[in-house]
Amino acid sequence: MQVSLESGEGLERILSVELPAERVEEEVSRRLEEIGRTARMDGFRPGKVPMRMLRRQYGSQVLQEVYGSLVESSYQDALQQQNLNPVGPPKIEPKQSDDESVFAYTATLEVMPEIELAKIEGKVTRPVAQVVDQDVEDMIEKLRGQRISWNPVERAAAEQDQVKINFKGIMDGEAFDGGSANDVPLVLGSNSMIDGFESGLIGALAGESRTLELKFPEDYRVEKLAGKPVTFEVDVIEVAEAILPELDDAFAKEFGSDEGVEKLKSDIRENMENELKQRIKARLKEQAMDLLIECNELHVPTALVDEEIDALRNQTRSRLPAGSSSMELPRDMFESQAKRRVGLGLLIAEVIKKNSIKLDDERVRQTIEEFAASYEQPEEVIKHYYANQEQLAAVQNVVLEDQVVDWVMEQADVVDEPTNFAELTAES
């Protein structure tokens, strides 16, 4: 067998394989002889059918089988000979040869990239923050805001009041679809309506009617309305002010605390501290992974990227409303994310291999315990994880990634950046 190798674009390789035609003929003859032992044809006893008739009857089928078998076996031999690590199946094409004594084909394939890890050079900014009393008080106020009740008042509407309204939108002298509604509760200052609508109702009294001359934003979501002038005729039915619930034991009980307000505050602080810890960890991990990619330019196999795109498409479809699962989702919607995931996966694996990083079983246990702590019977949750290999493997992978983050951080220039809980959690 003769094998030659060419490099294509990126990670593409082209194997040219040549086999002696006599090897094909030998295998065809051998298989035809096997068929001949049991083949039945009119006028001949089993095992006595002439070879020429066997070739006429079965030759084409056997030749195709032999070709397939020889391609499969010789391809594997060629991979070993050229020391190639393929990604996915090859594209096999027959190759024309001037020498009729040669059976030839080409195999086009992608190979795994050879990774030489570069030195990590760059900065990682580590957020430094703690949960303070004001953070807890602010969270309490948010929770009180979730339990607001509205008390009708006989005064002019002010910012943060709720008005109940009927309204009708008019454009070019006619009401338009979707521009009218009745008994709509609207909190003034919530920015739920287009600019000028809510501010135009400040000072209105229950029973009052107002006409608002406004304009839809240029980037309004309904294209036919974007940038157009509009008139809203608004009837104010009711004005109500917000009543916050008292911060008492009854309020605490609504949020799962049967031991009063102080216990509620303690639970809130603990949850916020856990969230802060996870936010800092996630911020560091993102920066460490960005730095790992930045320092290691890498070609990623198209086959692996395609697999990752399919996985991301399926994840997105699973979150779509019922009936939308067949929606066509374009490749370029996921390509960048898929390339990053594949590249990171290859780099993480190489870091683990080159640095002989061993899984920290104690960190695995600690990670599971932290997750289980939020349940009523944490020990049962821990037992479940260790009894379920799939879920345990998922935690182990996360811990290994965390160990790689530690490896990057040891080499990077880490700079502490003072911040606070509100700033660190602002994106949510």
UniProtKB/TrEMBL annotation:
It catalyses: [protein]-peptidylproline (omega=180) = [protein]-peptidylproline (omega=0). Consists of 3 domains; the N-terminus binds the ribosome, the middle domain has PPIase activity, while the C-terminus has intrinsic chaperone activity on its own. The keyword Chaperone applies. Signal peptide: none annotated. One of its GO terms (biological process) is protein unfolding. It comes from endosymbiont of Ridgeia piscesae. One of its GO terms (molecular function) is peptidyl-prolyl cis-trans isomerase activity. The lineage of its organism: Bacteria, Pseudomonadati, Pseudomonadota, Gammaproteobacteria, sulfur-oxidizing symbionts. InterPro entries: PPIase_dom_sf, PPIase_FKBP_dom, Trig_fac, Trigger_fac_C, Trigger_fac_C_sf, Trigger_fac_ribosome-bd_bac, Trigger_fac_ribosome-bd_sf, Trigger_fact/SurA_dom_sf. Its EC number is 5.2.1.8. The keyword Repeat does not apply. Pfam families: FKBP_C, Trigger_C, Trigger_N. Belongs to the FKBP-type PPIase family. Tig subfamily. The gene is tig. It is found in: Cytoplasm. PANTHER family: TRIGGER FACTOR CHAPERONE AND PEPTIDYL-PROLYL CIS/TRANS ISOMERASE, TRIGGER FACTOR-LIKE PROTEIN TIG, CHLOROPLASTIC. Its main location: cytoplasm. One of its GO terms (cellular component) is cytoplasm. Involved in protein export. Acts as a chaperone by maintaining the newly synthesized protein in an open conformation. Functions as a peptidyl-prolyl cis-trans isomerase. This is Trigger factor. Residues 160-220 form the PPIase FKBP-type domain. Keywords: Cell cycle, Cell division, Chaperone, Cytoplasm, Isomerase, Rotamase.
